[in-house]
Design goal:
Number of domains of chain B: 2
Helix content of chain A: 40-55%
Radius of gyration of chain B: 17 Å
Radius of gyration of chain A: 19 Å
CATH topology of the largest domain in chain B: Spore Coat Polysaccharide Biosynthesis Protein SpsA, Chain A
Structural class of chain A: alpha/beta
Largest sheet of chain B: 4 strands, parallel
Number of strands of chain A: 8
Distance between the termini of chain A: 11 Å
Number of strands of chain B: 7
Number of helices of chain B: 5
CATH architecture of the largest domain in chain B: Alpha-Beta Complex
Strand content of chain A: 15-25%
CATH class of the largest domain in chain B: Alpha Beta
Shape of chain A: globular
CATH superfamily of the largest domain in chain B: Spore Coat Polysaccharide Biosynthesis Protein SpsA, Chain A
Strand order of the largest sheet of chain B: 3-2-1-4
Distance between the termini of chain B: 36 Å
Strand order of the largest sheet of chain A: 6-5-7-8
Oligomer: heterodimer
Strand content of chain B: 15-25%
Order of helices and strands of chain B: EHEHEHEEHEEH
Order of helices and strands of chain A: EEHHEEHHEEEHHHE
């Protein structure tokens, strides 16, 4: 899970140093300026980062000792994707290189699990908390969002139904219902039910292509990588 | 910028692939920037679409320098741009974005403040052009994040 700090932090100033494990501040590639010396000190962009090259270079520039400064008045307007295919392709592409960047910068042969933290908790810059950090035969990072909780409970439900475990099926079904409703109603507007359902469908599609991209991108790197578009 | 400080020179750097229909909006906004760059380096990442018309339309209004990078991928094209750019500050803009008029001035200003600043970044918002449902989704997403509803 990578969060663009510049989208949620409106005050100008220095960004935190890139040392927060997987959670590193970065500037989106469409609105960033570099001192030539800073670019040269890190040998430019990593040609393996077909996406996320902006995340990778921000981490390297910061770790090379340079400061990153966020300037909210330097505003850029962006032509967002117009089509469903464009949306799927964009999120799939973002997912594809995530595991490589993770392994390159913070990967350890451990399984790290994160969950969204308290929204009011300002002590954690990304409001994410680590819920498990355990020995594991290969690299692993799971950001347990509502999306994953929903699919995990559906999987348990399926297994329980096939195995005939009634109580487990009942519990898994209840958890799936609650997390499913939570996921579907994140931004539900009762005045616009059709629009809201459409928005939910697009969010689900974006999450799914992001997750599939992340998993597929992780296989050649030997990384188990699960993330979602948003932390909730 | 203090008067005793030397003016920083700026290259605006654009990597593009098959978006001649969008890059005109970006060029137009560069023409009206309050800070004019010393050069605008455009790296075409081996597009199949032709840019001849839009390049010709802006050649007199912007200090364009155009290159073709055949190795596919944004990082390779950006590295080519770094190689070709000649000035101290490299400001990257994408072919599908439209900076506000004071964008470059505000993006370069912090570099005067502290020599340890290696990178300056700014925020992004949507450009209201056509109005497909997918675009409305992105817009709702951006607005929710800006309001801190959902993160």
């Amino acid at each position: 899970m990578i969060i663009d700090l510049t989208r949620c932090n409106s005050a100008p100033g220095y960004l935190p140093k890139a040392n927060q494990g997987f959670f590193n501040p970065f500037f989106a590639g469409l609105n960033v300026a570099f001192r030539r010396e800073a670019l040269q000190s890190v040998n430019g962009y990593d040609p393996k980062c077909f996406t996320g090259e902006d995340v990778d270079i921000s981490i390297r520039v910061s770790r090379a000792g340079w400061e990153l400064w966020f300037e909210p008045t330097a505003l850029v307007r962006h032509h967002d994707r117009r089509t469903f295919a464009g949306l799927l392709k964009q999120w799939y592409g973002y997912g594809l290189c995530s595991a490589y960047i993770f392994k390159k910068h913070v990967g350890r042969r451990r399984l790290q699990c994160y969950m969204p933290g308290n929204k009011r908790d300002r002590t954690r810059p990304y409001r994410a908390r680590c819920i498990a950090d355990i020995p594991f035969p290969f690299y692993g990072m799971i950001f347990l969002s509502t999306y994953h909780a929903l699919h995990l409970s559906l999987l348990v439900l399926l297994i329980a139904v096939l195995a005939g475990w009634k109580i487990v099926a009942l519990i898994a079904g209840a958890v799936a219902l609650v997390t499913g409703l939570n996921y579907a109603t994140i931004r539900f507007e009762w005045r616009h039910p059709l629009r809201s359902v459409g928005m939910f469908a697009l969010r689900y599609a974006a999450d799914t292509s992001f997750v599939i991209g992340s998993i597929l991108g992780g296989i050649p790197e030997g990384v188990l990588f699960l993330q979602a578009t948003r932390t909730r | 910028m203090n008067s005793d400080q030397q003016k920083l020179t700026v290259s605006v750097v654009i990597v593009t692939k098959d978006r001649p229909h969008l890059i005109g909006d970006l060029f137009e906004s560069l023409c009206s920037q309050t800070l004019q760059p010393e050069e605008v380096v455009v790296v075409d990442n081996n597009s199949s679409a032709s840019y001849a018309e839009v390049f010709d339309a802006y050649r007199d209004r912007l200090p364009l320098r155009i290159f073709v990078e055949k190795t596919p991928g944004i990082p390779s094209a950006r590295n080519r741009a770094i190689l070709e750019a000649r000035y101290e500050i490299l400001a990257f803009a994408d072919d599908d974005c439209v900076p506000e008029p004071r964008w470059l001035e505000n993006l370069v200003e912090p570099f005067y403040r502290d020599p340890h600043i290696g990178a300056v970044g700014g925020p992004t918002t949507y450009y209201a052009s056509s109005d497909t449902f997918v675009e409305r989704y992105y817009r709702a997403d951006r607005e929710a994040i800006e309001q801190g509803i959902d993160l």
